Amino acid sequence: MSEKIWLSSPHMGGTELKYIHEAFDANWVAPLGPNVNGFEEDLENFLNAEVKVAALSAGTAAIHLALIELGVGYGDEVICQSMTFSATANPIAYQGATPIFVDSETETWNLCPKALEEAIQDRIAKGKTPKAILAVHLYGMPYKVDEVSAIAEKYNIPVIEDAAEALGSTYKEKAAGTFGRFGVLSFNGNKIITTSGGGALVCRSQEDKDKAVFLSTQARDNAPHYQHSHIGYNYRMSNITAGIGRGQMEVLSSRVDARRAMHEFYKDLFATIDGVTVFSEPDADYYSNHWLSAIVVDPEVTGKTREELRLAFLEDNIESRPLWKPMHLQPVFANAPYYGGKVAEELFDNGLCLPSGSNLSDEDRVRISNVIKAFFGS
Predict the structure, then answer these.
(1) What's the pLDDT score for residue 293?
(2) Nearest CA among 73, 92, 76 for reference residue 84
């Protein structure tokens, strides 16, 4: 069997070991040290906004701490985009709060502003003003920032911006992760850059960052002994992991270019295949890193399904994957309220994520192209 082509595999730049060796040589192996500080500064410089960044163990941890900083607790409600990975929604449950799921719109596949406002109005009418809005930049595509922000401001509800998939994306030339009250980044193994595992919380002030760091290091009070006045967490990124991140930051721009090139490859490939839509920016305001390239297959036009295409890829040892199954369809959230129509459901039924890694070779692209052409008879 041919060598496996992965959906999105790690891609090292070559300088990561330099930072790791420096940490070992100085014995900075604990979850603190020069690499952590340096990685945070690298991210702040890249985002190019008035923000502070706290490096953490995962993007999920960042969402959890953002909810805590916003005072979300037992019995509260948090609006959450339904079309997302479970890591967006799970921290709501950690806090004993209820997720209120909202449908997507068709242009960016993200939070639908109309359904969002309907959800807010209905929850207020039921006596519960949501404590936060979790908006996602799906697969690197920025959500409708202006419209979502206007609604959030109208009802005075803070936005947590899940930019876990969107480092390097921009909306109106401003970096994803810098629009919300808090922003969330992820450096999981499949992300556009990786620290093996890890994430970051993007904060609007030093005070917010300091609180996040305090909570992420077991909330130890300033005392010579171990004293705790708050519940804390073991969420801080290690100096070793941050060293990988520092090396990865040196190649981030080229990784974005490579992912965007894969998107163009698919646009060209499907240009003559009727019934297949490649997920692309709605207009020039949006700049996606195209972390994952995705398509929607219309079975009525093509006579084929996305699942049949997935299996055709699998036969040649090529990984592809259906779009995220919406959270309101997940068994664990079966009783959660949902607002909107069927956009997210239809995207899940007909959408497929394609191999998108920045380390794919010309030979890989030939294999991918051959499967698609044979499958659609083009």
Answers:
(1) 98
(2) 92
